[in-house]
Design brief:
The protein has 287 residues and is of the alpha/beta class. The chain has 12 helices and 14 strands. It folds into 2 domains: 4-111 and 221-282, 3-Layer(aba) Sandwich (D-Maltodextrin-Binding Protein, domain 2), CATH 3.40.190; 115-217, Periplasmic binding protein-like II (D-Maltodextrin-Binding Protein, domain 2). The chain has a 7-stranded mixed beta sheet, with helices on both faces. The relative contact order is 0.20.
């Protein structure tokens, strides 16, 4: 498995010398932050800029650690190989006793998003998962709420066996990859994070134009940011404050614009009650 890391060290030194960050915080050498693939074409470049911003604000060098799946990220949190991660509401609900909630991103001003069922734009009749019986279907990640848990429980609630409904299913390990699979005809339908599809419509319109939203789910808690339970509270607080203050600077607003987010808000566990209900229907998994 290929492992891509962005290591940023200079900003921590700058923060200590110029920003008056307390020595206790600066003494921590690296804060490792786990992510899975998102929609950015220049993801490494973006993470370098975001890491530099956070390093200066937190007073500790930030290293983004990229992995293919949520399960990989959860493994790194458990083994204390990373301190923080951008995960999904599904693994949060299942593993929250091991974690502490850090922040919930705000999309269009709210900590909420939807799952979309997408089909090729040439398919003008599909309106639900039931219409795709016997077809090939793409899921994003087995521990994704929007990309797996929502469609699976939607079928279960409708009396459809999700393990027998489709001719074949596969995981793409990335919502952008679901869009590609449907656009290229590798699947006749797919489940995707609505925030990612909406953002791709802005940054990759030619790709998204080859797909159509056939169905939208109810609103669920947006994929949160979490830290491992053993992280020093001081560092957790500094990281949270840095994220929530991004709207206060031009550089922070520019980064938020690239992410297509309104900002980062406080963490509230009750936001994920809807996902917890789905976990109870489907059975625990999520990391």
């Amino acid at each position: 498995m290929q492992r891509r890391q962005v290591l940023l060290t200079g900003p921590a030194l700058y923060a200590t010398a110029c920003l008056g960050v307390p020595a206790a915080a600066a003494a921590i050498s690296i804060l490792r932050f786990g992510t899975t693939p998102v929609f950015l074409d220049d993801q490494v470049g973006f993470l370098a800029r975001w890491g530099a911003y956070l390093s200066a604000a937190v007073g500790t060098s930030v290293q983004f650690v990229q992995r293919r799946s949520y399960r990989d990220i959860m493994g790194l949190l458990r083994s204390q190989e990373i301190e923080a991660a951008w995960i999904c509401g599904y693994p949060w609900v299942v593993n929250k006793r091991e974690l502490r909630g850090l922040s919930i991103p705000l999309y269009e001003g709210a900590p909420l998003y939807r799952s979309y069922l997408i089909v090729p734009v040439t398919d003008t009749t599909t309106a639900s998962l039931a219409d795709l019986r016997g077809k090939v279907y793409a899921f994003s990640d087995p521990d994704s709420n929007s990309g797996y848990l929502v469609p699976r429980t939607t079928m279960m609630r409708a009396g459809i066996d999700p393990d027998r409904h489709f001719a074949r299913t596969f995981f793409t390990y990335g919502h952008k990859n679901v869009v590609r699979a449907v656009a290229d005809g590798l699947a006749q339908g797919g489940s995707v994070d609505g925030y990612v599809w909406d953002t791709l419509r802005r940054v990759a319109p030619a790709l998204v134009a080859r797909t159509r939203i056939a169905w939208r789910s109810a609103l669920y808690g947006f994929p949160p940011l979490a830290v491992r339970g053993s992280l020093a509270p001081e560092i957790e607080t500094r990281l949270r404050d840095a994220l929530m203050a991004m709207n206060d600077s031009a550089e922070g607003r520019s980064l938020l614009n690239e992410l297509n987010l309104t900002g980062f808000g406080p963490f509230r566990d009750e936001v994920f009650n809807g996902i917890a209900e789905l976990v109870a229907i489907a059975g625990a998994r999520g990391g």
